[in-house]
Amino acid sequence: MAHASERGATARDPTDRAAVDRGAASVVAVALVSAVVLLTTTALGAAAGYVDARRAATTADAAALAAADAASGAAPGIPCEVAESIARRAGARLVSCELDGIVSTVAVVVPGSIAGLDATASARAGPPGST
Known about the structure:
Layout: H1 17-20, H2 24-72, H3 79-89, E1 93-100, E2 103-110, E3 119-125
Antiparallel strand pairs: 1-2, 2-3
């Protein structure tokens, strides 16, 4: 019977670190790249959510101010129609508009840019001291 060394194969010494660790660097590299991709994707999703929320808040503010101006007579138009127009131009949807005299309260929804998560915001506007 022929021995392994006679067949041309080499026997590995289990204490030889080069033989034991062969390929470990590739596994570690793949794990690190995967972690970086996961963290980057999470950060981009959070940033997009923040931008959507800020856009919703800004749109709600503008729509509430426009409705309050129309209610007070400082600007022409029907208050809630003006608010809806402002929201639509900003790419949002007006979901509520309430008037209490010349104080307006509006809520808008902005379609989410990632994973379909919509951003909502509300705002109230009127003369100084009334809100």
